[in-house]
């Protein structure tokens, strides 16, 4: 039987805690390196945060399953070193109130809830004279590391990316050699692991992309990235999201192999920086004027979009792939998001929330940035008069309909629904709606 109580007994006041979060790996881990380099008796822990888990409606959530499987792998690696991984479940504030150690090390997380939680943990530990150390690991540049000459954050990607590349040097890409200090993990016997059921979840039916970096795909990424029917993307986004691969390792490869792929990594840093400096984007438009748009928010049409039954095959294929697998190709993400916001005039927040529930690689900063880009309400967004034509997008990126046929087998038969809206009418409607909102 597993319980938090057993785990509390293992950690002693002279021990150092390393708290894994979105960095589920031993190699090239900034905070873990600092913990091991400066301390002996480092105890690795992970907390299934009940505050976050209680918000999840699907109790077979793919992401929880992915985290769980990654933790089992991490625990096995630690046990080969004579240590183990303590996996807690509960509210981190309450758990840390009961933990006594010399120090706690971890890596940064800039989502609003995480910032608030970490501030509370730090304050709690300070009262107990326990040091709280945290480090950059999830991105190459964070906070104010890439800013304009006047000290303000960038809000346009191209100048941000130029400054990002100009600032980059070997220091920022250097790996952290954690393996040199593996002897500093505290040695203790294997410990029981909670089951998914113990934390209120069950196993999903998801396929998890392997933790494999295909340099061939990266090499040809600029040629293949827009075609959903082929394996032209790395499928590493979930591994980046949960830190099962190192961003520094990927940036090193990108610099050698493909600048277009490197730019995708920079977009990730950019959106993380935007979320940190402009946390209002979580619930509101980055550009306040766009909060004046009068959305139609037709629930029946939203349901058709969610189910992949809009009568636009490229949109429906994307939504069905998402529902079935937790994955959607990036080009198709743009098409489906644009369709919801521009064709159906449904609030981008509805679509963002749906993606947040379904995406295996869901990341608040990137998901929010992508949706606000599609809605034209975000920083460096597509101008509002740009309305993707699903038929033209299909002709460009799925001309032989291989992707569509895979996910919409009834397409072309009487079983396939008629289009929920006419493209020309929808385009005129959204342009009029946006223009009125922005000119009022």
UniProtKB/TrEMBL annotation:
Pfam families: DNA_photolyase, FAD_binding_7. It comes from Pseudochryseolinea flava. Keywords: Chromophore, FAD, Flavoprotein, Lyase. Belongs to the DNA photolyase family. GO terms for molecular function: deoxyribodipyrimidine photo-lyase activity; DNA binding; FAD binding. It comes from the Bacteria. Its cofactor is FAD; (6R)-5,10-methylene-5,6,7,8-tetrahydrofolate. Gene3D superfamilies: 1.25.40.80, DNA Cyclobutane Dipyrimidine Photolyase, subunit A, domain 3, HUPs. This is Deoxyribodipyrimidine photo-lyase. Binds 1 FAD per subunit. Residues 14-140 form the Photolyase/cryptochrome alpha/beta domain. One of its GO terms (biological process) is nucleobase-containing compound metabolic process. PROSITE patterns: DNA_PHOTOLYASES_1_1 (PS00394), DNA_PHOTOLYASES_1_2 (PS00691), PHR_CRY_ALPHA_BETA (PS51645). The keyword Lyase applies. FAD binds at residues 221, 233-237, 261, 264-271, 361-363. The record marks 295, 348, 371 as: Electron transfer via tryptophanyl radical.
């Amino acid at each position: 039987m597993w319980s938090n109580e057993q785990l509390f007994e293992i950690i002693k006041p002279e021990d150092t805690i390393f708290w894994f979060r979105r960095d589920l790996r031993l190699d090239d881990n900034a905070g873990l390196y600092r913990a091991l380099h400066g301390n002996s008796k480092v105890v690795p822990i992970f907390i299934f945060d009940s505050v976050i888990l209680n918000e999840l409606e699907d109790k077979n959530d793919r992401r929880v399953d992915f985290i769980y499987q990654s933790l089992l792998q991490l625990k096995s690696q630690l046990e080969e070193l004579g240590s183990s991984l303590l996996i807690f479940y509960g509210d981190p504030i309450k758990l840390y109130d009961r933990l006594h150690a010399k120090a706690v090390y971890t890596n940064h997380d800039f989502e609003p809830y995480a910032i608030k939680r970490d501030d509370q943990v730090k304050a709690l530990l300070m009262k107990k004279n326990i040091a709280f150390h945290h480090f950059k690991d999830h991105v190459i540049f964070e906070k104010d590391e890439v800013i304009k000459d006047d000290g303000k954050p960038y809000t346009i990607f191209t100048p941000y990316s130029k400054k990002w590349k100009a600032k980059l040097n070997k220091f920022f890409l250097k790996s952290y050699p954690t393996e040199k200090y593996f002897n500093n993990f505290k040695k203790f016997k294997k410990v029981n692991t909670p089951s998914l059921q113990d934390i209120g979840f069950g196993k999903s039916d998801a396929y998890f992309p392997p933790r494999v970096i295909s340099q061939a795909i990266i090499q040809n990424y600029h040629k293949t990235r827009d075609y959903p029917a082929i394996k032209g993307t790395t499928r590493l986004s979930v591994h980046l999201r949960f830190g099962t691969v190192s961003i520094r390792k990927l940036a090193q490869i990108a610099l050698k192999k493909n600048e277009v792929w490197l730019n995708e990594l920079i977009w990730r840093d950019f959106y993380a920086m935007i979320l940190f400096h402009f946390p209002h984007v979580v619930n509101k438009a980055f550009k306040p004027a766009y909060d004046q748009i009068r959305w139609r928010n037709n629930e029946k049409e939203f349901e058709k979009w969610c189910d992949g039954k809009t009568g636009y095959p490229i949109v429906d294929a994307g939504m069905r792939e998402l529902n079935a697998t937790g994955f959607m190709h990036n080009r198709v993400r743009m098409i489906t998001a644009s369709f919801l916001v521009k064709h159906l005039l449904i609030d981008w927040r509805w679509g963002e929330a749906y993606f947040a529930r379904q995406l295996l690689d869901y990341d608040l900063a990137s998901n929010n940035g992508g949706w606000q880009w599609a809605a034209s309400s975000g920083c460096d967004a597509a101008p509002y008069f740009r309305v993707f034509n699903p038929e033209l997008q299909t002709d460009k990126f799925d001309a032989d309909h291989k992707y569509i046929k895979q996910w919409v087998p009834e397409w072309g038969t009487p079983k396939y629904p008629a289009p929920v809206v006419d493209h020309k009418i929808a385009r005129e409607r959204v342009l009029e709606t946006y223009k009125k909102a922005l000119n009022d």
